[in-house]
Automatic annotation (TrEMBL):
Name under which the protein is recorded: RRM domain-containing protein
Superkingdom: Eukaryota
InterPro entries membership: Nucleotide-bd_a/b_plait_sf, RBD_domain_sf, RRM_dom
Gene3D superfamilies: 3.30.70.330
Species this chain originates from: Aegilops tauschii subsp. strangulata
Start and end residues of each RRM domain: 21-67
Length: 67
């Protein structure tokens, strides 16, 4: 079976396999940093990880992330 090349699935979490515990967050402003995403969701409880997905070539946000 070929490995997937998508950014979301190739991201390796330091917390192990979190595919069943992540929440997709779409419609983010291009300027939203991962830390800003984390800070927003911390008001609802402990956050293990928050990441804004970026383009590999440009480093620009793709407008979505996972918490």
């Amino acid at each position: 079976m070929a490995a997937s090349s998508s950014t979301a699935s190739s991201y390796r979490s330091r917390f192990g396999d979190t595919t069943q515990t992540k929440v997709f967050v779409g419609g983010l402003a291009w300027e939203t940093p991962s830390e800003g995403l984390r800070q927003h969701f911390e008001q609802y409880g402990d956050i293990l990880e928050a990441v804004v997905i970026t383009d590999r070539l440009t480093g620009r946000s793709k407008g979505y992330g996972f918490v």
